Amino acid sequence: MTMEFTRPSHRLPRRRGSRIPAEPGKPYFIEKGLGDRAHLFTDLVTVYAGGEQTENTFNFFTVEGPEGDVIPAHVHSDTYEVFYITDGAVRLFVEDVEGQQYERLLRAGDFGFVPKNCPHAYRIERHHSRVVGVAAGPGGTFERFFENLGVPTEELGLPSEPYVPGPHQFATVPQRYDVRFLPEHQWRTGS
What we know:
The chain is mainly β. 8% of the residues lie in helices and 35% in strands. The protein is built from 3 helices and 12 strands. The strands form 3 sheets. A 7-stranded antiparallel beta sheet has the order 8-5-10-3-2-1-11. Strands 7-6-9 form a 3-stranded antiparallel beta sheet, with no helix packed on it. A hairpin with a 5-residue loop joins β6 (89-95) and β7. Residues 1-24 are annotated as: Disordered. Residues 66-124 form the Cupin type-2 domain. This is Cupin type-2 domain-containing protein. It comes from Streptomyces cirratus.
């Protein structure tokens, strides 16, 4: 989203046109959809609060998208992540630290929790689905990952064409944000 906030000592330049104030401890308000936006895969990600505003304790974002493919499996070594579905349906895939895999179809009002060190992925099952995400942990926050792997946008809607990052981007950008992709990971849950 706007800056890298994973570690307090690593800062990227502030995103031009951001509606999110850079100063922690300052109240602010953002109208629906007008946070910092990025297109990634077929989705629109909107960040409303990040590490800079929360002293690297949590972030708050939404992901909206059409019915589609599974987002690549990945893991956060220091970050806990929650999925709260406000619209549509999203299938969440999670593997615990013992290797037990779980799969759950989450509908509007449903909640999913992914502990740190647990591989996970999701697939949007219905058009116009929306996930509210929160991530927190001792490693900081990863909200700037979306715009650094994807494409920052001022558009309010979904991308007209999917944006799939090149292999070199998957190999470099995620390392700065406590995101490690697992390209060989297999889900054995059946869907």
